[in-house]
Amino acid sequence: MTAAAMESVLVERVPIEVDQLERGPKQLHPPPDHSARSNSENTYADETALGKSTLRHEDIEGYSHSADYCQPTATAPSQALVSSCPDTPGPLYPYMTAPGWSYVKVADGLHSPRDLIFDGQGRLLIIEEEIGLSQHLMDAHGCITHTRLLIENPDLTHGICLSADRETLYASSSSSVFSWTYDPTTGNVSQNPGLVISGMATSGHITRTLTIPPHRTDLLVVSHGSDSNIDQDTSNPKVARAIVKVFNISSVPMGGYNFVSQGWNAGFGLRNEVGLAFDGNNMLWGVENSADNLARTVNGTTTDVHTDNPSEELNFLGDVTLANDDWYGYPVCFTVWSPDELSDRVFKVGQQFVQTPIPDFNDGTCAQISVPPVLSFQAHSAPLGCKFDARFSNLFVAMHGSWNRQPPTGYKVIAVPFAQGPDGSYAPTAASWSIRGSIDVFYPPDETQCSSSTCIRPVGLAFDAAGRLYVTSDASGEVFFLSQG
What we know:
InterPro entries: 6-blade_b-propeller_TolB-like (IPR011042), Beta-prop_PDH (IPR054539), Quinoprot_gluc/sorb_DH_b-prop (IPR011041), SMP-30/CGR1_Lactonase (IPR051262)
Strand content: 25-35%
Protein name: Pyrroloquinoline quinone-dependent pyranose dehydrogenase beta-propeller domain-containing protein
Distance between the termini: 53 Å
Pfam families: TrAA12
Helix content: under 10%
């Protein structure tokens, strides 16, 4: 079905404000198929979060500890070995960790810290909303020894990455992607930025995640969210919202690329694909914030299904060197998390549904032309940053937390166990219909009592050379690192 035909059968809906605190039949890049695994393996995946197996973290990025196994699914939760760096106030809120993990607070008082990276010399670079980009020198213990504002630009919102040679720094506002010459020795940047991409929307979801494929360092991947909760126009990929696109940065045209009309697609119908990460085969994965306040109308009867639907998503986007024009469902097809809320027919977790089925476009249509997620997460958890460990055996995801769900959910960092199939491809160990495909690694004592004033709100994730996983919290202005051993 063409985009125009699809658009013509959409049912008109009342627009809803965008979340306040989240910022065809055959796939072109099919995800790895591990469905042939034995029942015992699928049981293993479903039981992982129930304390019946072990999360393996062998050799997480840069981690060289000889005993690098941990068991975060033991029956008793860890009280967490917690401390703060010198001259850093203690954590604002109590948090737990999976057994074998501890956390340290390394920064306080930042202005809405979002995404973060390390440069080649181990300096920490953080986007601070309405401020710009701060740079932090680190000691051997992972603590900050000196801080400076490297780039003053209040328009920077989220995205940041470095070129493979560490000599070009990229960062994004809602409308544009900029570049600076970066000195990897001194950490200084050129005074005037270059314009790499322009023409992105300045409303709705304003985060623009940036990443460079490890095997194709001449490419820049940019995610762009929807303009509203249900952004009807995005059923047409030419609108260039709710989409991930790719640009060749080896030859940027004068004045930069136009985001809408240039570059190629890495998938569309992706409501707000904030987290992007490449697996060990350089295939792209993304985590998606799905919609709010959904209802299901069948035969004139409307049912509120929004508390536990739709699920948040883990999507396989594949090889970004090739155009991926597959449609992932938004703004029409949404993914089931709680089948019980959709009582008019039998659904499984991970299947897709429409709000108002009609003869020309219904749940069956979604199954025929939309790419479903590889794994689902609890509705309204708001996944943002995601990072693989060095062995690609776990994908860590920052769950920012719900803004209007009762009871609240999220406000934590989770790990999604991955494995390679017989063909060498990577995929979650859990089946697509599992509701236990992840493990809480860093979490509040009771997430149902969380809010932006009682819990942290994880955003960005980055590993340092020692294998410590750094986490920003925009609502509290804090930065932590998580470590094992």
